[in-house]
Design goal:
328 residues; alpha+beta; Immunoglobulin-like; Arc Repressor Mutant, subunit A; 4-stranded mixed β-sheet; 4-stranded antiparallel β-sheet; 12 helices; 8 strands; 55% helix; 15% strand; rod-shaped; Tscrpt_reg_LuxR_C; Regulatory protein, luxR family; transcription; DNA-binding
């Protein structure tokens, strides 16, 4: 029974330690402390900001102890991985620009309530840290990959660099948040829009995967809007191409129909020569003779005259006596 009580007490203490600890903490060795605020600002990064510099939204501050220690509680962090920023603020706006040009006074990192991030005391602010965040560890790999392309010579193949970066982001990154960060980098390089147009299905599937994840929809809203605009543009282009194709098809059909009528009319224009007797009847009609007068003059029946007239109409492609008279 006593053993059970000890076990219960140990478990309770372990849980209190585990769940009560600050997810993010560390030490700062502040040089020229009179120029810096005695606190650290924690901000959430807005990935939807179209600016290449990440937009930080402050969410909390933590005081720095005499030993340089600071910590942030779990309440400031999301259940899922999120991009955050730690920053040491100058005391005055005048010092802000001067110090920011000389000293890197911030750190971007990925964490959640489940992770532990510990910053070590070094000569540089937020320089080294350990983390249990798998997303952050993968992001560090992405940054190492991009570091290979720093300080390049002028003859470097930029096109090949973009191809390699795109391939790494799409194929090597497994954690969605890090993939979104990589995609934003592609967009900063003016590569994303071209790739969406070439591979719309990949990005549509990625968006569905993001919607099925625990990520805050605001995290991928920028990608969703961009994808919507580009797919709408592609649909419009396809519609316009379809309209042009239909117009060309209608034009060709019209030409064919016109050609058929033209050939038919051309065949009709080709008149069959009148016989000698039909020519005589035609001349008599055009001279103003009636059917009876023509029959008497040619010593034939009126029925025969009518037959000749019918043949004349057919061969000359006319319908009545008036049209025949007009052909004088």
């Amino acid at each position: 029974m006593r053993a059970f009580q000890y076990f219960f007490l140990f478990t309770l203490l372990f849980q209190t330690h585990t769940f009560g600890q600050a997810p993010v903490s560390g030490y700062l060795n502040i040089d020229q402390s009179e120029k810096w605020e005695n606190k650290v600002t924690l901000s959430k990064i807005d990935l939807n900001d179209q600016d290449s510099d990440y937009h930080a939204i402050p969410i909390a501050t933590a005081s720095i102890t005499e030993e340089g220690f600071f910590a942030f509680d779990q309440e400031h962090f999301e259940n899922h991985a999120q991009l955050y920023k730690l920053q040491l603020q100058p005391l005055s706006d005048k010092e802000k620009k001067k110090l920011s040009e000389k000293i890197k006074n911030y750190k971007l990192f990925i964490a959640s309530k489940k992770d532990t991030v510990s910053f070590h005391k070094t000569t540089k602010y937020f320089d080294k840290y350990t983390t249990t965040s798998k997303a952050d560890l993968e992001w560090q790999k992405l940054k190492k990959f991009n570091a290979r392309f720093e300080n390049l010579t002028s003859d470097f193949d930029t096109k090949q660099y973009l191809i390699e970066t795109k391939g790494y982001v799409k194929d090597s990154l497994q954690i969605l948040l890090v993939k979104l960060i990589g995609i934003k980098a592609l967009d900063d390089q003016n590569l994303l829009e071209k790739d969406i147009k070439k591979n719309p299905k990949y990005y549509v599937d990625l968006l569905q995967e993001l919607k099925s994840s625990e990520l805050d929809p605001a995290t991928y809203l920028y990608l969703e809007n961009k994808l919507h605009l580009i797919t709408k543009e592609l649909t419009t282009q396809k519609y316009q191409v379809s309209l042009w194709a239909n117009a060309v098809a209608i034009f060709i059909i019209g030409l064919l129909i016109g050609g058929i009528f033209y050939m038919k009319n051309k065949r009709n224009v080709r008149q069959i020569p009148l016989s000698k007797q039909e020519q005589i009847v035609k001349d008599l009609i055009q001279s103003g003779k009636s059917n009876k007068e023509i029959a008497n003059e040619l010593f034939v029946s009126i029925s025969t005259v009518k037959t000749h007239i019918s043949n004349i109409y057919s061969k000359l492609n006319i319908a009545n006596r008036q049209e025949l008279l007009s052909k004088r």
